[in-house]
Model the fold of this input.
Amino acid sequence: QVQIVESGGDLVQPGGSLRLSCTSSGFSLEYYGIAWFRQAPGKEREEVSYIFVSDDRTWYVDSVKGRFIMSRDTTRKTVYLQMNNLKPEDTAVYYCATKKFGVDAEKQPLQAHDFGSWGQGTQVIVSS
Done:
């Protein structure tokens, strides 16, 4: 069974840090471009970051540049999102997703329909 699992969400104070992890079963993430999306209550799901399959380049939405770092582990089977200097506006459910083959990843930001497999999400709450 193909499954993506996110973990690492938590309640954190403004200025704090969290590291989210994304793993898979039934297939390997190493062959896919991967994105982290987030969805806050009442808002559309937005792409936060992306890591390219070919060379592990990364892309970030402007609101998280300089604060978030996306990476793969050495096996390329786990993807991380290191989130630093968290702000209340970062509060959302964070999802990991694999890009569909044939979608041009250079045309960032991508949309949710460009991704095929999704996890159930992990909740991040930034509040004092």
In short: Residues 72 and 79 are 4 Å apart (CA to CA). The longest strand covers residues 18-25. The chain has a mean pLDDT of 96.
